[in-house]
Amino acid sequence: MKTRITELFGIEHPIIQGGMHYVGFAELAAAVSNAGGLGVITGLTQRTPEDLAKEIARCREMTDKPFGVNLTFLPAVNPPDYPGYLQAIIEGGVKIVETAGNNPQKWLPAMKEAGIKVIHKCTSVRHSLKAEQIGCDAVSVDGFECGGHPGEDDVPNFILLPRAGEELTIPFVASGGMADGRSLVAALAMGAEGMNMGTRFIATVEAPVHEHVKQAIVAASELDTRLVMRPLRNTERVLNNAGVERLLAKEKALGAAIKFEDIFPEVAGVYPKIMKEGDMDAGAWSCGMVAGLIHDVPTCKELIDRIMAEAHALIDQRLRGLLAA
Ligand SMILES: Cc1cc2nc3c(=O)[nH]c(=O)nc-3n(C[C@H](O)[C@H](O)[C@H](O)COP(=O)(O)O)c2cc1C
Q1: Fewest beta carbons less than 10 Å away: which of 11, 135, 274, 286?
Q2: Nearest to residue 286, comparing CAs of 164, 181, 175, 185?
Q3: Mean pLDDT, each 10-residue run in order, the chain (325 residues)
Q4: Among 171, 164, 203, which residue's Cα sits nearest to residue 20?
Q5: CA–CA separation, 273 vs 283, rounded Å?
Q6: What is the model's pLDDT at position 324?
Q7: CA-142 nearest atom, ligand 1
Q8: From the DSSP assignment, how many helices (H) and strands (E) are in the chain?
Q9: What residues flank ligand 1, with Cβ below 6 Å?
Q10: Which of 21, 99, 183, 274 for mutating ligand 1's site (highest number of atoms within 8 Å of CB)?
Q11: DSSP strand pairing (172-175 vs 138-142)
């Protein structure tokens, strides 16, 4: 399957693995890229730019295919060493960066200079248009169903994707709620040039996370995620657990007066506890509603091959068959 996204990134299949905190290590990125998709290392999971440089080198040992690095720009009082991380990316010869969070404009000239293609993750049409306007090469359009931060507009992909298609000139991928060949074909029908998956890629053999996390995703239904931190305008979709219920009870009790400090125990330092130790009640960790569509733990190659076979069959048999009828 050839799309503007496969052409832009030099990949075989139009499937991207989105950056994921404490999940997007070299093992997963390499496995996705080796399977013909685009694997992405999560930059900020590495404690320092030096660690990121090592992670990029490790990934390169595991694959000779293109892979990317995610750089998430967070509003922070003490921001991470972004210039250092960017330098590690450039010196590591990485040619694809997935940006997310704040507007990446400030960092674009350095990336362009280094021949890096930039795909920015956006949760709205207006942010997507802004990304196009400032010179991003592509957009990952993240609908309300997504795991992680869906923004504050709450527009699901059945509306958001065709709206992005109406406005954008640069190519975009569908992100949020994508799991299988049906997702890919639907995304293409709505104007996307491929899809980005987060949650689905956690439940794979190569994802270097605790087995409890994979089993929690397989066991979860589409009803098991919750939105947290809405009162702080930092909404995150997470898998429900005892820590999340505690957090939601605090939100209810404190109302508009809530501060980040109030929920610190349920959100800070949770990822290593969940992803490494498998302590599934530790607190809030991102997970999409798409968990309801995830029933197994295949290898990345099995998953991507299955998606592509299913997509081909859907287009060639079911859809073409409908026309013939
Ligand atoms: C556990 C987890 C951690 C994530 N961490 C990040 C992150 O650090 N930066 C980022 O840009 N997106 C992050 N995301 C969002 C994903 O890259 C992707 O956009 C999202 O998962 C798509 O929705 P889906 O889970 O329905 O596939 C994370 C998602 C999950 C599930």
Answers
A1: 135
A2: 175
A3: 98 98 98 99 98 98 98 88 98 98 96 98 98 98 98 98 98 98 98 98 98 98 98 97 98 96 96 98 98 98 98 96 85
A4: 203
A5: 9
A6: 76
A7: 19
A8: 15, 10
A9: 18-21, 23, 42, 70, 72, 100, 121, 142, 145-148, 175-178, 196-200, 285-288, 290
A10: 21
A11: parallel
Give pLDDT, residue 78: 87
Q: Quote the CA–CA distance of 50 and 68 in Å, as a whole number.
A: 17
CB atoms within 10 A of CB 98: 28
Choose the residue to mutate in 145, 224, 286 for probing ligand 1, maximizing ligand atoms within 8 Å of C-beta.
Answer: 286
- Report the DSSP beta bridge partners of residue 225: 239
CB proximity list for 57: less than 8 A, separation 6 or greater: 92
Taking a C-beta distance cutoff of 8 angstroms, is the pair 178, 159 a contact?
no
- What pLDDT does residue 325 have? 67
Tokens 């509003």, located at residue? 75
